[in-house]
Structures are given as structure tokens and as C-alpha cells.
């Protein structure tokens, strides 16, 4: 183990933006969202960057990172990533979950970025996986708006060459079923469709929506119920032929475990910026692979660092199926790095895997500073 | 329940304070050594002049908790009816997505306790009477804890706790497993057979080690084995319960009632130990207590290094729960208990292993907010 490169500083950068168009989900309407970038500096002069999922209260996340995590890292060998993960997890007691694990995610991704730059290898290669040079992506999302708006979004995604498209559905069961049918009619049979419900339904409503999905040949039904309602997912799986997908609400492997083990879920969708970074996300994706469950990275409103870390995981993990390509035009995805976002890079529903060392991107820190929430 | 207060009242302000203290003596557990700790105190004021006090479990990084309350929770509360506690709970839970847990739920706990304090004051009823009829005047408490330190220090703690009238004592155990087994036998010898002993491992062991220690605890007549494993290792707890006769206890690591569900329903744990300032406050902790009661698993409130609001709210919940419910009486001098309220801490009030239930409205104590602010500046 090479311990000569040590961590010299950990800086958390809060970012807030007004969304160009508000994102409507059954969870709520987002018109202003935040994220946090974590900058880790090392004695070799190498700086790594990670991202922490922090939709709101980003300064609380930054305070936690700099108060509770940074003292556990300064002076430590940058390459001992697993040891740092365990140590950071002990910054607060209680079951693993919440803001702490999201904060750890940001640091963890930055440490992998340093590790890659140090060794001259892309993270995908460091992960020792199956060596994809491109990854399949699907368009996200057709928003929960009017029919006309939804049809226009669908057409735009089809024209852009996407082979799979995600449709957001909402809490009204009848309206959701109508939308499911309309999107299938408009898309034709050559495009794969999936839906995301963002916890919209109770069990009976989810069963009805599930019937509509099955009748219209959808490939997955994402987060129909609140993530803690595991018995609900089991009951729905018994009554719904469309495969179930979930995982963006998980922080650690222990939370993903029950529904994977019993094959209630067919698709696991961790967000690397929430679920403990590359270290923990890889653990849960490997666990899913051992049980025949596919990996479909969640990106949502996260930024370019989350997306790029996910591209590396997607390139490496054998059970990777398809990755979310968020087309929201977010300032966290374009304009803060020298790598264009997946929505710009995608061709024929594929995104290239960066081949530079580490994450394979450089951050424009002045652009990040311009997104500071106090401005 | 009596009728709700007039609906004209609304929440005017929500303020979070981050008191910090250096412990007079460091607390040593297998988790780590604590020499400086914090909590967050939440003050909720209403238009009708009610002031409620709540507490957030926030051992470290208290300013991060305050920022979260100020930024993400307060805007969901200002102007709302303080009596709509369940509605406000659900709204606060939606401040962040992801599974319920972590700092968000700890912050919700602080607000929730303050709202229940206000409800009690508005109705002129003590908190426990808002939850259930109870004729109790006091609740059983146990002394916590014999530290995981040298034998001499441990022995004098046993003597002190017995002299203070406690007939239930908790012992911290850690690594190695054989040292833990020796400590269990020694404490039993020092305490005698008339004292009920509990052991708390703070996640110290792997499954096979826990089996070894648990056998030693059974042999020395311990009444529970607390948090032997990582709280997320539920399959491990289930396996351990199959291998051991000593009852298992857990729950202080839970944030929600749902997280208690599996081990309660599978009869894996025999005592449920939520900390009210972590597990979502009065509303959510009461739900967890009721789940436990349905399955014959009594409430054994965790207090630990928390402050006077945590301890006092736990006494009210134990009073309302009745039956075998009991409360941890942390014996370490603690400025969050002794310096910020009119009510004296349990470690000074306890008599013959019982703690009186405050009779005033709400929590039954008044917070000295100047003292709270002063501790935030140290």
C-alpha cells in the first residue's frame, strides 16, 4: 500500500440554482434545487472532486462535511478509501442513513478521483469491471404536465435517438393510466418505455397502474410506493407483472438487501451521490448481481460529477442495464466542468466513458462559486 | 382527549440553539470516547404566547443541525397551527427525499417535542396525560452506566449506584469478548444477586463473539444484552436470538417506528429502546412503543448523553405506556441536564430506583434559554 500521498484539505462547495423549467413529480414541484461538490486536496498536488446529493439546505451538508468528516481525513493516506468510509460512517451514531451518508458519498467519490489520477487510470478501469467504452442510456423524463407537453417531450426524445424513455406519472390513478396508454400510442412499439411514480400511490392504486403498464408493455415501474413500505412492494410484486424498480431512496446496502434477496425488485437504482459514493454503491450493485438484479443508475437532479461517477460504475458493473440520461439542462450538469453532460454527449442512446484518469473531468471552480446559495 | 385549542393560534418562530459541553469525565464506550458533546435545543413560539421546548440528538456538528432546522424545517412551520402535529410531521419529513432517517428525523424530533410541550401547556395537562390515562406518580429507572474502564473505577461505580438506591444497573462492555465476560462476572460478584444487571455493548462484536459474550451474560444472570451487533445487521440479531437465552435489547439507533418493526415482530428483541430525540419525537416514539406493546416488548427509554428535555419526555412516555416500561437514568454529571431547566436531572432526583413524573403542563419544566445560549458560546 502506497501511503505517501496524504489528504491535505477537504472543502465543501454549496451550489443552488433556479431550474430553467420547474420539475414536476408526484413528490413535489422543484423550482430551486441545490447540490454540494466536495473538493479533496492531496499532498501530491492532486485534487479530487465528489458530489453529495443535497437538494435542500446545502450549507447544513457543508457544515457536517467540514466539522465532522474533515478532521477524520486530514493527514491520512488518500488511497485507504475503505478505511475512510468506515471511519466517516462513525462520525454520527444511529443506523446508517440520511445526510451523513450523502456527505460521505461526496468525499468517497473525490477519493476515487484522486486514486485514478494517481494511478493514471479511469475509475471504470480501477473498478476492474467488464470494460465497456460506452454505456446505454435512457431519456429522463417526460414530465407530469399536460398531454400536449408530454407528447412534445416524447417526440423530442425519440428524435434524439433514445431507445428507452422514462415517463413521470402522478397521484391520480386514472390520469396516470391514461398517460401510460397515450405515451405508448404516440411512441409506437419500437421504443422501450418505463414509468417513475415517485411514491405516488397506495397499494390498490399501484396495482391498477401496474395493469395499465403490463397492457402497454412497459419495461419497469419505478418507486410506486414509499420506500419504507417493503411489505407493500412484496404485495405489489405478487399482483403486478411489470418488473419493479427502486433504489434511489437507499443510503446503504443493508436497506437494499431485503427486496433484492427475495427478487421483489428487478432493477436496482442507487444514486451514487446519495448511497455512500462509489464504495458503497459498488457493494450494493455487486449484491444485486449475485441475486440476478440489474443495475440502472439514478441521476435525477444531480450534477456532472454524480453523472460521471455513475458512467464509470455503469461501465464496470456486469449487471448494468441502462443509465438515466437527465435532460433537464441543469447548471450542475453543464457549465461547471470541461466534460459536457450525457444529454449532450449521447449518440444513439449511448454515452462514452471518459478515458482520462480518475473521473476524467476538471471542475471550473469559479463557475461553481457563481452558484453559491448566498449570491 | 379534550377539545383542541382554538384554531386561531399559529407558530410564530422556530429557533435552534447548539449548546456544547466538555464532559466532566469522558464517557468511554466500545463505540468511542466522548469528551466533548452537543445537543440542539429547539424553541417554538406561538402567537398566543406559548413557548415549547424540544431537543435534538446531535452529538457532533450541532451547527449543521441548526442550519437544517432553520433552512428546511422552519419555513414549513411558520404560520401553521401548532396543534396539527401529525400534519406538520409529515410535511417536515418531506423536507428531504430518501428513506426516513438520519439528521432530518433527529431535527424533526426536536420540533415535535416542542409542539407536544405546547399542546400540553395549551390544555393545562402534563404530556403523559395527553397520551394515556395513568395513575402513576413515578416510573422505574435504572442507573447507567458502569463505564468500560478499569476494575477499580468500575467497582466504585457499582458501590455508588447501589448506595444511591438503584436496584437496576447497566454495565458497558466492549472488546475483547473475554474481557467482557470477566467484567460481567466481576460486576455480578460486586453487586450481589439482588441487583438486576444489564449489559450494553454499543455494537462491539461480530456474531460469534456476541454469542460467546451472551452466554457469559446468561451464566451471570444478566437481564438484557444491548446492541451487541451493528443495528443494520438485522439478520445477525435474528441469528443471535436463536443461539442465546439472554434477552436482547436494541432501538436507540432507530429513527422511525418502521425500523423497529422487524425485530419486534420476529420476537428477536425483548426490550425496545428508542431515544425520543432521535426517533422522531413524541409522535413517532409513541408509535414505536405501541408496536412494541402489541408484541409484548416493553419500552426501555434510551437517554444516554442527552439532556433534560429528552429525559423528561421519556419519563412521560414511560408513564403513559405503563406496564414494564422504564427509563435510563444516566448518572454522569451533565450540564444539558443540570444547568438549563427548572427541573433537576434524574441523577439528582431519583429515589429508590424511581423517578417522579413532573406534574406541570406539557413537559413540566421551564427552560432557561439564556443558559442554553451561554452553553452555545463555550
Radius of gyration of chain B: 20 Å
Q: Number of DSSP helices of chain B?
A: 14
Cα(first) to Cα(last) distance of chain A is 43 Å
Fraction of residues of chain A in helices?
A: 25-40%
Task: Estimate the global geometry of chain A from the Cα principal axes.
Answer: globular
Number of discrete helical segments of chain A = 13
Order of helices and strands of chain B: EEEEEHHHHEHEHEHEHEHEHEHEHHEH
Largest sheet of chain B: 9 strands, mixed
Summarize model confidence as the mean pLDDT of chain A.
96
Given helix and strand content, the structural type of chain B is alpha/beta
Strand tally of chain B is: 14
Oligomeric organization of the protein chains = heterodimer
Specify the overall morphology of chain B: globular
State the separation between the terminal residues of chain B, measured CA to CA.
43 Å
Describe the protein's architecture and organization.
Chain A is an alpha/beta fold and 375 residues long. Chain A has 13 helices and 12 strands. In chain A, strands 4, 5, 6, 7, 8, 9, 10, 11 and 12 form a 9-stranded mixed β-sheet that branches. A 3-stranded antiparallel β-sheet of chain A has the order 1-2-3, with helices on both faces. In chain A, helix 3 (99-119) crosses helix 10 (277-290). The longest helix of chain A is centred in the N-terminal third of the chain and has 21 residues, at 99-119. The radius of gyration of chain A is 20 Å and the shape is globular. Chain B is α/β, with parallel strands linked by helices and 378 residues long. Chain B is built from 14 helices and 14 strands. In chain B, helix 3 packs across helix 10 (281-294). The longest helix of chain B is centred in the N-terminal third of the chain and has 21 residues, at 103-123. Chains A and B meet through helix 1 and helix 3 of A and helix 1 and helix 3 of B.
Amino acid at each position: 500500500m502506497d501511503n505517501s500521498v496524504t489528504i491535505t484539505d477537504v472543502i465543501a462547495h454549496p451550489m443552488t440554482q433556479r431550474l430553467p423549467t420547474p420539475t414536476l413529480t408526484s413528490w413535489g414541484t422543484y423550482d430551486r434545487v441545490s447540490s454540494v461538490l466536495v473538493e479533496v486536496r492531496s499532498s501530491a498536488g492532486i485534487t479530487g472532486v465528489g458530489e453529495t446529493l443535497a437538494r435542500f439546505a446545502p450549507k447544513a451538508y457543508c457544515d457536517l462535511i467540514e466539522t465532522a468528516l474533515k478532521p477524520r481525513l486530514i493527514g491520512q493516506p488518500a488511497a485507504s478509501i475503505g478505511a475512510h468510509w468506515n471511519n466517516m460512517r462513525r462520525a454520527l451514531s444511529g443506523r446508517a442513513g440520511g445526510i451523513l451518508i450523502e456527505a460521505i458519498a461526496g468525499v468517497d467519490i473525490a477519493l476515487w478521483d484522486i486514486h485514478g489520477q494517481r494511478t493514471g487510470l479511469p475509475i471504470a478501469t480501477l473498478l476492474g469491471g467488464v470494460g465497456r467504452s460506452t454505456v446505454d442510456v435512457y431519456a429522463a423524463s417526460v414530465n407530469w404536465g399536460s398531454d400536449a407537453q408530454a407528447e412534445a417531450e416524447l417526440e423530442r426524445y425519440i428524435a434524439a435517438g433514445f431507445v428507452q424513455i422514462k415517463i413521470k406519472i402522478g397521484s391520480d390513478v386514472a390520469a396516470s393510466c391514461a398517460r401510460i396508454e397515450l405515451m405508448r400510442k404516440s411512441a409506437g412499439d419500437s421504443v422501450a418505455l418505463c414509468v417513475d411514480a415517485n411514491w405516488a400511490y397506495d397499494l390498490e392504486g399501484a396495482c391498477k397502474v401496474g395493469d395499465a403498464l403490463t397492457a402497454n408493455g412497459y419495461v419497469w415501474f419505478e418507486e410506486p410506493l414509499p420506500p419504507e413500505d417493503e411489505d407493500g412492494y412484496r404485495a405489489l410484486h405478487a399482483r403486478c407483472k411489470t418488473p419493479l424498480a427502486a433504489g434511489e431512496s437507499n443510503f446503504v446496502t443493508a436497506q437494499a438487501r431485503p427486496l433484492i434477496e427475495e427478487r421483489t425488485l428487478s432493477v436496482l437504482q442507487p444514486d451514487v451521490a446519495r448511497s455512500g459514493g462509489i464504495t458503497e454503491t459498488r457493494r450494493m450493485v455487486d449484491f444485486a448481481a449475485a441475486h440476478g438484479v440489474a443495475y440502472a443508475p439514478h441521476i435525477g437532479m444531480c450534477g456532472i460529477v454524480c453523472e460521471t461517477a455513475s458512467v464509470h460504475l455503469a461501465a464496470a458493473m456486469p449487471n448494468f442495464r441502462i443509465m438515466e440520461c437527465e435532460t433537464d439542462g441543469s447548471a450542475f450538469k453543464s457549465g461547471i466542468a470541461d466534460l459536457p453532460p450525457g444529454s449532450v454527449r449521447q449518440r444513439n442512446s449511448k454515452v462514452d466513458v471518459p478515458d482520462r484518469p480518475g473521473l476524467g473531468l476538471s471542475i471550473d471552480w469559479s463557475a461553481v462559486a457563481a452558484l453559491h446559495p448566498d449570491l | 382527549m379534550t377539545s383542541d385549542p382554538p384554531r386561531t393560534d399559529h407558530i410564530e418562530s422556530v429557533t435552534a440553539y447548539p449548546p456544547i459541553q466538555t464532559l466532566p469525565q469522558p464517557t468511554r464506550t466500545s463505540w468511542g470516547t466522548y469528551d466533548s458533546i452537543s445537543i440542539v435545543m429547539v424553541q417554538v413560539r406561538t402567537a398566543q404566547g406559548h413557548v415549547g421546548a424540544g431537543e435534538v440528538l446531535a452529538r457532533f456538528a450541532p451547527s449543521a443541525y441548526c442550519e437544517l432546522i432553520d433552512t428546511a424545517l422552519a419555513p414549513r412551520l411558520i404560520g401553521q397551527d401548532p396543534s396539527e402535529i401529525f400534519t406538520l410531521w409529515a410535511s417536515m419529513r418531506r423536507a428531504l427525499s430518501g428513506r426516513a432517517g438520519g439528521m432530518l428525523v433527529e431535527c424533526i424530533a426536536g420540533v415535535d417535542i416542542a409542539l407536544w410541550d405546547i399542546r400540553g401547556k395549551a390544555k393545562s395537562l402534563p404530556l403523559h396525560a395527553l397520551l394515556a390515562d395513568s395513575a402513576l406518580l413515578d416510573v422505574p429507572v435504572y442507573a447507567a452506566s458502569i463505564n468500560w474502564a478499569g476494575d477499580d473505577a468500575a467497582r466504585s461505580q457499582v458501590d455508588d449506584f447501589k448506595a444511591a438506591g438503584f436496584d437496576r444497573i447497566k454495565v458497558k462492555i466492549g472488546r475483547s469478548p473475554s474481557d467482557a465476560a470477566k467484567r460481567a462476572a466481576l460486576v455480578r460478584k460486586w453487586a450481589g444477586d439482588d441487583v438486576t444487571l444489564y449489559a450494553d455493548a454499543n455494537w462491539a462484536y461480530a456474531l460469534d463473539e456476541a454469542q460467546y459474550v451472551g452466554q457469559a451474560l446468561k451464566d451471570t444472570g444478566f437481564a438484557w444484552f444491548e446492541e451487541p451487533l451493528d443495528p443494520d445487521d438485522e439478520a445477525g440479531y435474528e441469528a443471535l436470538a436463536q443461539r442465546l437465552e439472554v434477552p436482547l435489547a436494541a432501538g436507540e439507533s432507530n429513527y422511525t417506528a418502521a425500523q423497529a418493526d422487524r425485530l419486534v415482530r420476529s420476537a428477536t428483541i425483548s426490550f425496545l429502546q428508542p431515544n425520543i430525540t432521535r426517533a422522531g419525537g413524541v409522535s413517532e416514539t409513541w408509535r414505536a412503543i405501541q408496536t412494541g406493546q402489541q408484541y409484548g416488548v416493553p419500552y426501555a427509554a434510551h437517554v444516554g448523553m442527552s439532556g433534560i428535555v429528552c429525559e423528561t419526555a421519556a419519563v412521560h412516555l414511560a408513564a403513559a405506556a405503563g406496564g414494564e416500561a422504564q427509563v435510563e437514568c444516566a448518572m454522569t454529571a451533565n450540564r444539558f441536564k443540570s444547568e438549563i431547566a427548572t427541573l433537576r436531572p434524574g441523577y439528582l432526583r431519583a429515589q429508590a430506583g424511581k423517578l417522579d413524573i413532573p406534574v406541570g403542563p406539557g413537559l413540566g419544566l421551564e427552560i432557561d434559554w439564556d443558559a442554553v445560549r451561554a452553553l452555545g458560546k463555550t
